[in-house]
């Protein structure tokens, strides 16, 4: 989930016009399961990931010695590799150059020191970075900038509590942000058991409202809860899209409310969709405006879904009044799930972005084997939501579930995908719609670059974390947000997967250290709006809005 187009209420399709021509290639189904390395596509084509382990090499002039140290996010070991063009047969391996876990320290004077590593370079220091020569994967790099953390400059931060009920504090959860002007941001989520939305320009809120569904008003019970997951622009306001959760029959149903410029509900919008009586999981996680209507993605357990317990991936086209025009339900091609009812079986779409060919790219998770773990799932669709031929299933080979929560178009026609690798918490994204659990380790944050043809160009993982959302933040810059070590966390990547800044709760005034960023939206220039949750005390959550600029 990410919102772009600060300055106007516009379709994210418009934002892609700045990315140039080209189209997502159609083709077969790349199967990238198993160990990092080679994989097959179209039966006979090899799709290889960027060299992993990678290699960093350090050199200095013969008359100047340089001490250095650096830390990587993955594994690290010494190497005799020499970059092309240097007059050395091999790099030196000296006992005074040490490797301790993910950190290396050494000294070079005229020679070459090289190290193989996985992941990315987290930090790099040298006693004279202007003299040191550094290569990463045989490409010259600026030693003074390598591993630098220019970071984010926070321009505004504000927390929103959930209020009180019967003398008890209630949760405040901020799920998503939608910029509507150069200064205004719509934030949506929930406060207590009510859906919540506000239009804010920093410290001044234009409106701040809670909403309840007709189902809630008929059943004012503690097990019933309303919430909003995201907002979409209309010609004269926004549509707030969320769910009705009833813990009695354990059901989750779509609910949408159209509001005007003052946040007041407007008439003429269909707030629920007719579903079969036995359907108990009909939830949208993301959506975009498409022409005069909308395309939403999520999961449904409606008639025709193969997975009888958790449902299948759901894509629905709505018109300007919220009426259902078309819908498709999907599981991966060639993996019928008829009759499945295991707790670990999941097929659902968690993110959608426009494609350059006029269709859409959706991402989420699937379970190819009913006894196995979930895998990241990417599918190309045409303008009417039908399969467009390009599909991919991806895995890190870690034990536990892998899934994508966000898909971001890249400048070269590919996509950056973010999510979770090796989720061992046994919590599905469906459950995260309702609440967060920070005490359980979710796995590793996972980011991957997928080419226009479906090949994996690079991927990175970061322990004890997850990514919730991402956005293109400028030429060759992509910001992903989530949580790491139970702290709100944002990180900027370039097109090669190298980090160019990080933001945590420690960088945000007064923000509690435990929580997560749940969405990020890009604005004019370098402006970013990040929303999330933080836990100030006990188990109660507060919603947060943070605006920041990204250096570099």
Explain what the structure shows:
The protein has 552 residues and is an all-beta fold. The protein is built from three helices and 42 strands. The strands form ten sheets. A seven-stranded mixed β-sheet has the order 21-22-23-24-25-26-27, with no helix packed on it. A five-stranded mixed β-sheet has the order 1-40-41-42-14, with no helix packed on it. It has a five-stranded mixed β-sheet with strand order 2-31-30-29-28, with no helix packed on it. Strand 28 and strand 29 form a beta hairpin. The two termini are 24 Å apart.
End-to-end separation in angstroms reads 24 Å
Integer average pLDDT? 79
Physical arrangement of strands within the biggest beta sheet: 21-22-23-24-25-26-27
CATH architecture of the largest domain: 7 Propeller
Number of helix segments? 3
Quick take:
The protein is an all-beta fold and 552 residues long. 2% of the residues lie in helices and 51% in strands. It is globular and about 80 Å long.
Architecture blueprint of SSEs:
Layout: E1 2-3, H1 12-15, E2 31-32, E3 38-41, E4 45-48, E5 54-59, E6 66-72, E7 76-79, E8 98-100, E9 103-108, E10 112-117, E11 121-126, E12 133-136, E13 139-141, E14 152-160, E15 164-165, E16 168-169, E17 172-179, E18 185-191, E19 194-200, E20 205-211, H2 214-218, E21 224-233, E22 238-246, E23 251-259, E24 281-290, E25 293-300, E26 312-318, E27 324-330, E28 348-354, E29 360-366, E30 375-381, E31 387-394, E32 401-409, E33 415-423, H3 429-432, E34 444-450, E35 456-462, E36 465-474, E37 477-484, E38 487-493, E39 499-504, E40 515-522, E41 527-537, E42 540-550
Parallel strand pairs: 1-40, 2-31, 23-24
Antiparallel strand pairs: 3-4, 5-10, 5-12, 6-9, 6-11, 7-10, 8-9, 12-13, 14-42, 15-16, 17-18, 18-19, 19-20, 21-22, 22-23, 24-25, 25-26, 26-27, 28-29, 29-30, 30-31, 32-33, 33-34, 34-35, 36-37, 37-38, 38-39, 40-41, 41-42
């Amino acid at each position: 989930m990410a919102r772009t187009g600060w300055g106007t209420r516009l379709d994210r399709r418009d934002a892609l016009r700045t990315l140039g021509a080209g189209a997502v290639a159609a083709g077969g189904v790349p199967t990238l399961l198993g160990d990092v390395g080679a994989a097959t596509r179209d039966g006979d084509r090899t799709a290889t990931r960027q060299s992993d382990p990678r290699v960093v090499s350090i050199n200095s002039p013969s008359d100047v010695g340089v001490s250095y140290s650096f830390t990587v996010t993955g594994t690290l070991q010494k190497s005799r590799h020499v970059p092309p063009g240097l007059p050395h047969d091999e790099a030196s391996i000296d006992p005074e150059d040490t490797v301790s876990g993910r950190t290396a320290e050494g000294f070079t004077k005229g020679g070459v020191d090289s190290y193989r590593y996985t992941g990315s370079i987290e930090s790099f220091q040298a006693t004279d970075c202007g003299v040191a020569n550094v290569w990463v994967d045989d490409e010259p790099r600026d030693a003074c900038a390598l591993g630098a953390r220019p970071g984010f400059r926070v321009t505004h931060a504000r927390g929103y509590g959930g209020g009180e009920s019967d003398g008890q504090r209630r949760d405040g959860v901020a799920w998503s942000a939608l910029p509507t002007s150069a200064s205004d941001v719509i934030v949506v989520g929930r406060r207590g058991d009510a859906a919540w939305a506000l239009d804010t320009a920093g410290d001044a809120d234009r409106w701040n409202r809670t909403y309840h569904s007709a189902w809630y008003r008929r059943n004012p019970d503690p097990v019933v809860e309303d919430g909003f997951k995201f907002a979409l622009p209309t010609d004269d306001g926004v549509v707030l899209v969320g769910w009705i959760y009833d813990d009695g029959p354990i059901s989750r149903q779509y609910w949408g409310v159209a509001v005007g410029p003052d946040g007041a509900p407007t008439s003429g919008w269909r707030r629920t969709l007719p579903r079969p009586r036995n359907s108990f999981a009909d939830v949208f996680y993301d959506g975009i405006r498409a022409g005069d209507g909308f395309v939403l993605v999520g999961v449904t357990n409606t008639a025709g879904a193969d997975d009888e317990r958790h449902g299948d991936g759901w894509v629905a086209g709505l018109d300007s009044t919220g009426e259902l025009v078309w819908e498709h339900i999907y599981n991966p091609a060639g993996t019928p799930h008829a009759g499945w009812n295991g707790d670990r079986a999941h097929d659902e779409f968690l993110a959608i972005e426009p494609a350059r060919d006029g269709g859409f790219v959706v991402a989420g998770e699937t379970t190819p084997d009913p006894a196995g773990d979930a895998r990241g799932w990417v599918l190309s669709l045409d303008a009417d939501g039908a399969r467009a031929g390009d599909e991919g299933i991806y895995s890190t080979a870690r034990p536990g579930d892998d899934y994508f929560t966000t898909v971001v178009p890249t400048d070269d026609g590919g996509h950056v995908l973010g999510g979770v690798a090796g989720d061992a918490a046994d919590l599905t994204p469906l459950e995260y719609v309702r609440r967060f659990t920070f005490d359980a380790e979710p796995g590793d944050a996972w980011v991957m670059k997928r080419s226009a043809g479906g090949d994996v160009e690079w991927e990175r993982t970061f322990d004890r974390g997850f990514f919730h959302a991402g956005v293109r933040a400028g030429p060759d810059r992509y910001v992903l947000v989530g949580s790491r070590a139970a702290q709100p966390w944002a990180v900027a990547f370039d097109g090669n997967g190298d980090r160019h800044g990080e933001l945590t709760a420690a960088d945000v005034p007064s923000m509690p250290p435990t929580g997560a960023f749940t969405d990020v939206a890009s604005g004019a220039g370098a402006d970013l709006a990040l929303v999330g949750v933080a836990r100030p005390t006990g188990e109660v959550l507060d919603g947060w809005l943070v605006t920041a600029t990204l250096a570099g």
